[in-house]
Amino acid sequence: MRWACDGFGGLMRVQGVLLGLILGISLVFIAQLFGDWDEAWEVNPGAVVESWHRLREGSAGSGDAHHFLTLLSCAFLHGDVFHLTGNMAYLWGFGALVSELLGWRWMLGVFLLSALGASVSHVIIERDSWIPMLGASGAISGLMGAYLDMALRWDLPDPHIWPLAEPVAPWKLAALAAVFFAMDYHSMFTRTAGNIAVGAHVGGFTVGLVLAALVVPMPRVARHRRT
C-alpha cells in the first residue's frame, strides 16, 4: 500500500500545517541571528525549579510565569544552522508520518505536548543546573515515539513522503525510532552525550509513546494485525 500526494496542492492539503511549523521555526532562527533576545526564552532548569518552589509557596510572579513559558518556547529555538537543519529534517520525516496517519491536529498536539514533556524531563534531571537548553529534538522524539507505538500495534501502509522516490516499510521507520531512543536512554545514564540534552529526548519520546498508546485513535488507513 502506498500513499501519494496529488501534486503541490495535495501536499499542502495534507502537510501544510507541518510545513508552516517548519517555516515558522526557521524564521525564528533567522530572528535569533539579529538579536540577543533568544536566551530569555530558553529553558533554564535552575530558574524553573526556583519558580516552582515560589508557586507552591504562593509567592509566584510574572517572572515565574515567564520561566514556565520557556518550557514550550525553547522548542522553537536552535543553537546554529546545523542544529536547525538536522532537527527540521527529522521533523519533516516523522511529522509527515504522523500527519498522514492522524491528521495535522494530532501531529501538532503530539509535538507541543512532547515539547513540554521533554522540557519537564530535562528540568527534573538537571534541576541543579543553570545552563539553558533549547531545540525541537525533544518534541520530534515524541513524534517518533507516537509512530513507533502505532507501527507496533497496527498494520500501517508503506508511507511515501516527498522527496523520497520510494516508500519505506513501516518496520524500518519504527526500528529507526527505537534505535534513537535506545541510544538516548543509554547516553542519559552513562553521561556520554556531552552537551546534548538526551534526558529531554527520552522525556519527549515517552510522552509521544504514551499519547499514542492511550489517546490516539486507530488511523483509518491502518488495519488490525492478524494473529
From TrEMBL:
Residues 67-216 form the Peptidase S54 rhomboid domain. Keywords: Hydrolase, Membrane, Transmembrane, Transmembrane helix. The chain crosses the membrane at residues 12-34, 106-125, 131-152, 164-183, 195-216. Signal peptide: none annotated. InterPro entries: Peptidase_S54_rhomboid_dom, Rhomboid-like_sf, Rhomboid_protease_S54. It is a multi-pass membrane protein. The keyword Transmembrane helix applies. It is found in: Membrane. It holds the Pfam family Rhomboid. Its main location: membrane. SUPFAM superfamilies: Rhomboid-like. Belongs to the peptidase S54 family. PANTHER family: PRESENILIN-ASSOCIATED RHOMBOID-LIKE PROTEIN, MITOCHONDRIAL, RHOMBOID PROTEASE. This is Peptidase S54 rhomboid domain-containing protein. It comes from Haloferula sargassicola.
